[in-house]
């Protein structure tokens, strides 16, 4: 046999249900507030993380650029040394004559010049 349960409707029951509703509303407000605080904290962590990732990418680009500039500097230094060496040697008239004859195919009257590519000065 089923039993019917009837709720009593007195002042105590009304006060208790009102108190439960009030506590439930307070709990919802508190949870909503904590949710907003959590979202704010997440945003505060996302922005610096984004800036950090951007800075890291910029640093990697700078390192790559630095390596490239070092390589260019080394090539330029080697070329400068070579040019200085040639300039010093060209002060000698005999070397200058040989260099001009080999590089630009200059010849004396009645002389034929045959160029051999591997023997030309750079």
From TrEMBL:
Q: Which domain of life is it from?
A: Bacteria
UniProt keyword terms in alphabetical order: Coiled coil, Membrane, Transmembrane, Transmembrane helix
Return the Pfam families for the record.
Answer: DivIC
Family matches, as InterPro entries: DivIC, FtsL/DivIC
What processes in GO biological process is this protein linked to? cell division
Q: Give the transmembrane region(s).
A: 33-53
Positions the record marks as coiled coil are 52-86
Q: Which PANTHER family match?
A: CELL DIVISION PROTEIN DIVIC (PTHR40027:SF1)
Any idea what this protein is called? Cell division protein DivIC
* Organism in which the protein naturally occurs: Streptococcus parasanguinis CC87K
């Amino acid at each position: 046999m089923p039993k019917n349960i009837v709720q009593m409707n007195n002042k105590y029951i009304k006060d208790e249900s009102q108190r439960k509703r009030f506590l439930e509303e307070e709990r919802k407000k508190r949870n909503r507030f904590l949710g907003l605080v959590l979202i704010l904290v997440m945003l505060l962590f996302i922005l610096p993380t984004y800036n950090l990732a951007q800075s890291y990418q910029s640093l990697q680009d700078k390192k790559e650029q630095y390596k490239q500039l070092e390589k260019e500097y080394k090539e330029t230094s080697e070329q400068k040394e070579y040019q200085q060496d040639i300039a010093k040697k060209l002060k000698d008239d005999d070397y200058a004559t040989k260099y001009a004859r080999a590089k630009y195919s200059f010849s004396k009257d009645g002389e034929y010049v045959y160029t051999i590519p591997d023997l030309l000065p750079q």
